[in-house]
Amino acid sequence: MAPRTQTGSGRLSQGLLLLWVLLGTGLCHAGAEAESFGQDTRTSPPVAVFNWTAQLVEETYTNITQKCWEVFVDLMRNVTASELCEWKVISRPYSLLQACLEGWADHLRYGYPNALAEQYIFQSHHRYFHNCTLEHQVYFDPPEDVLLAMIIAPICLIPFLVTLVIWRSKDGKAQP
């Protein structure tokens, strides 16, 4: 192997540093699972030692969400126009888009839901699901006059029935 070369300042080259950053944050080995980080397995692996600026995190998340969108569009190419409103068919691509947007936001500690993820969700609805209508009848509240009659009728009947029961019980005769 060739000996390691140093730059004039004694630091690794920018390309190696970038590779180290990407490997340290998990961007280069997507899909690989961390075995042991000394943490609970439900948490993400630790972020690299240096601090990312908000601009760098936002730029990285923007690039990743674009890739999430491209994967979603590619999956939706397999769905025919007649199947666009069938949840059994579109649930997988739609759920993968949502999981990708949310998972990377959590991994980058960007916060979810966010405006960028919301934009992609709205774009998916506008592009693919804008003609979907409900197949079953939607029920609405009855008109106000019908509603008032349905409320007032039992209220007025109760005193009348109580009066009738009391009046009939004053007779005093035993019923056979």
What can you tell me about this protein's structure?
The chain has 176 residues and is an all-alpha fold. The chain is built from five helices and no strands. The chain has helices at 14-25, 54-76, 87-107, 115-128, 144-169. Helix 2 packs antiparallel against helix 3 (87-107).
Keywords:
5 helices; 176 residues; mainly alpha; disordered N terminus
Write the layout of secondary structure elements.
Elements: H1 14-25, H2 54-76, H3 87-107, H4 115-128, H5 144-169
Helix pairs in contact: 2-3
- Main beta sheet strand tally, sense and closure: none
In helices, the fraction of residues equals 40-55%
Low-confidence stretches: 1-50
Strand content: under 5%
**Rg over C-alpha atoms, rounded to the nearest angstrom:** 32 Å
* Mass-distribution shape: elongated
Note the total helix count.
5
How much is the average pLDDT? 75
The H-and-E topology, N to C, reads as: HHHHH
Number of strands: 0
Helix and strand composition category: mainly alpha
Alpha-carbon distance between the two ends: 113 Å
Task: Give a short overview.
This protein is an all-alpha fold.
